[in-house]
Design a protein that fits this description.
The protein is of the alpha+beta class. The chain folds into three domains: 187 residues, Threonyl-trna Synthetase, Chain A, domain 2 (Threonyl-tRNA Synthetase, Chain A, domain 2); 222 residues, BirA Bifunctional Protein, domain 2, CATH 3.30.930.10; 98 residues, 3-Layer(aba) Sandwich (Rossmann fold), CATH 3.40.50.800. 36% of the residues lie in helices and 26% in strands. The chain contains 19 helices and 28 strands. Strands 10, 14, 15, 16, 17, 18, 19, 20 and 23 form a nine-stranded mixed β-sheet that branches. Strands 25-24-26-27-28 form a five-stranded mixed β-sheet, with helices on both faces. Strands 1-2-7-6 form a four-stranded antiparallel β-sheet. Strand 21 and strand 22 form a beta hairpin. The two termini are 32 Å apart. The structure holds one RNA strand of 75 nucleotides.
Length: 595
RNA sequence: GCUGACGUGGCUCAAUGGUAGAGCAAGUGAUUUGUAAUCACUAGGUUGGAGGUUCGAUUCCUCUCGUCAGCUCCA
């Protein structure tokens, strides 16, 4: 996201100004609103804006027309946005008289020079104040000149948000809206949101019969036959790739004694988020695994390793359970039961760069196949909170950065965001609603080798500690498939389509030939369905199109006589008749894909 | 977990305190069809669950489960 306060970014200013107008309008909803609506912050964000506030009663979307009415009045008045600087005490008094506790807190923060991350007013001598009409707000700006510039806006949704993002503090109401320079831009944005909603994986998952959810197991997918096909194809292709790239597959238990989680550190940090298993006495002495790494540590440790064995790469498609908070569950993107393409590499420090190079190669092969646009975040050491040798960290971070550069991967640096046990790379893709979804993650770990006392024998006979690389390239298959559903809007490429071809007969007279075509395709491994119902051909086509089937074969008298098929493709429509054998070859070829 | 909204046949949605409806899907029958919906009939709901208010609750209230939008979290 661009810096919100760049004066050259007109849209940012426009949205920020619209947020002020909205805050004013919400105040008009309540008697003595200037005092009873306690404003927090109201910044522009990508495409939208919001304002956080404490209100006498919850705002609901039903309030939007009324709020918008007041906004329009303010906009029509064409009041200028005017800035002033107030001395701290003046500002404290003014906002104090109006019980604006959040603004007072911000003013204190500004005078203590603590505030930097907010967009509220900062100045040497005092605080920056903006007026528009009867509305006055603590704000650094910048704003547009006149309220009339904010004509093209719409309020979108309302939600809760904690003051200063702290779940121990007050929960405020956040109202989101969007604002644009022209009516056409606004309309285009609203249309884009509607289009995006149509490819929501939860909607398509139901319509295409891919998966379902049930209250009996919240946050865990039931994969229906078509979805299970996609799931299995994907995991098979990924597995095949890794096996040819130096990984060995393992399978490990679901349930482990708590001692393992104590060793790994999970018991301390994540016990509340794990599904616990009780013993006969009712004590929680073991737990379902939330990740595979501790199991892999045990495997590594079970034999003595030589430097000649390294890098030692193991891969696991084990089922994981995480007891995610109820409010966070969302479709397939945030689930309680998941399975990752999870691998761990035990490596000498000198080989870290080389391993990263290989992992990025895998990443590019998989993401390249799907043509998925991604973003990479590189999280580096938090100087306050890290374990291990600072020299090792520095070397590792330099190495990772070099690898990113050498592979021409664009990344953004997140200084201080790494976990305490090692730097990490996160790859994010955008979902259909423009939200970032984390998929691939590659993480260096100096901690687990320590906790599990892992060693290898170096060439000079000394015992050394390996480094562990955690890597998941698809991430969880659940989330990855959710993203693929949205990326393709359900129209999967042929090799991944649960049904690749529907053979449809013009009438019952051609069922024999239709059946022959179906069976031939099936014999060649094509996922084919015969539609010999007695509906019209138009209806059959409509059915298949709604299911996003890549190929439709129309079988009638002409085709039967010449032993051809009339082919209709999902993308190109009717592409005419083709010899049966030619089509079979085409299907076999299209269905064949390796990463 | 927090704030708010929502929950009506498989799906999409009506019904605002007075006998729960429609379209699609399903079943049956008719039709035998040439590139996005053939026609008719039939069946399907104790309105997520529990409690309460009321002569009467899909509708109002409480609790609970789930879903959604965000927030916090995401090993």
């Amino acid at each position: 996201m661009p810096e919100p306060n760049q004066p050259e970014d007109y849209l940012q200013r426009l949205r920020h100004s619209t947020a002020h107008i909205m805050a004013y309008a919400v105040q008009q909803l309540f008697p003595d609103g200037e005092r009873t609506v306690k404003l927090a912050i109201g910044p522009p964000i990508e495409n939208e804006f919001y304002y956080d506030m404490e209100v006498p009663r919850p705002i609901t979307p039903e309030d939007f027309p009324e709020i918008e009415k007041h906004m329009k009045a303010m906009i029509r008045s064409n009041a200028p946005f005017e800035q002033e600087t107030w001395a701290y005490d003046d500002a404290r008094q003014w906002f104090g008289e109006r019980d604006q506790k959040f603004k007072l807190e911000l003013i204190d923060g500004i005078s203590d020079r603590e505030v930097s991350a907010t967009d509220e007013g900062v100045d040497e001598e005092g605080v920056s104040i903006y007026h528009n009409g009867d509305f006055t707000d603590l704000c650094k700006g910048p704003h547009v000149e006149k309220t009339s510039e904010c004509r093209y806006f719409k309020l979108l949704r309302v939600s809760g948000a904690y003051w200063r993002g702290d779940s121990n503090r007050e929960q405020l109401q956040r109202i989101y809206g969007t604002a644009w320079e022209t009516k056409a831009d606004l309309q285009a944005y609203l249309t884009q949101r509607e289009e995006a909603a149509k490819r929501d994986h939860r909607k398509l998952g139901r319509e295409l019969e891919l998966f379902q959810m049930h209250p009996e197991s919240p946050g865990s997918a039931f994969w229906l036959p078509k979805g299970a096909l996609i799931y299995n194809i994907l995991s098979e292709k990924v597995r095949k790739l890794y096996l040819t790239e130096g990984y060995q597959e393992v399978r490990t238990p679901l349930i482990y004694d708590s001692s393992l989680w104590e060793t790994s550190g999970h018991w301390e940090h994540f016990k509340d988020d794990m599904f616990l298993v009780e013993n006969e006495e009712g004590e929680a002495t073991s737990a379902l695994k939330p990740m595979n790494c501790p199991a892999h540590m045990l495997i590594y440790k079970s034999v003595r390793h030589s430097y000649r064995d390294l890098p030692y790469r193991i891969y696991d498609q084990g089922v994981l359970h995480r007891n995610e908070a109820t409010g966070t569950l969302t479709g397939l993107s945030r689930v309680r039961q998941l399975c990752q393409d999870d691998g761990h590499i035990f490596v000498e420090e000198k080989d870290i760069a080389n391993e990263y190079e290989r992992i990025l190669g895998l990443f590019q092969r998989i993401y390249g196949t799907f043509d998925l646009p991604f973003r990479c975040d590189f999280s580096t050491r938090n100087p306050e909170k890290f374990m291990g040798d600072i020299e090792v960290w520095n070397r590792a971070e330099t190495l990772l950065e070099d690898v990113l550069k050498n592979n021409q991967i664009e990344y953004s640096l997140d200084p201080g965001e790494a976990a305490f046990y090692g730097p990490k790379l996160d790859f994010q893709v955008r979902d259909s609603l423009n939200r970032d979804v984390q998929c691939a993650t590659v993480q260096l770990d100096f901690q687990l080798p320590e906790r599990f006392d892992l060693t290898y024998v170096a060439s000079d006979g000394s015992e050394k500690r390996p480094v562990v690389i955690h890597r998941a390239i698809c991430g969880s298959f659940e989330r990855f498939i959710a993203m693929l559903i949205e990326h393709y809007a359900g129209a999967f490429p042929t090799w991944l389509s649960p049904v690749q071809c529907v053979v449809m007969t013009i009438s019952q007279r051609f069922v024999d030939y239709g059946t022959e075509v179906e069976q031939l395709l099936a014999q060649k491994g094509c996922r084919v369905v015969l539609d010999n119902s007695d509906g019209k051909i138009g209806a059959k086509i409509r059915q298949a199109r709604l299911q996003r089937v890549p190929y439709m074969l129309i079988i009638g008298g002409r085709e039967q006589e010449s032993r051809t098929v009339s082919v209709r493709s999902r993308e190109e429509g009717n592409i005419g008749a083709m010899a049966l054998d030619t089509f079979v070859d085409k299907m076999v070829q299209e269905a064949d894909l390796d990463f």
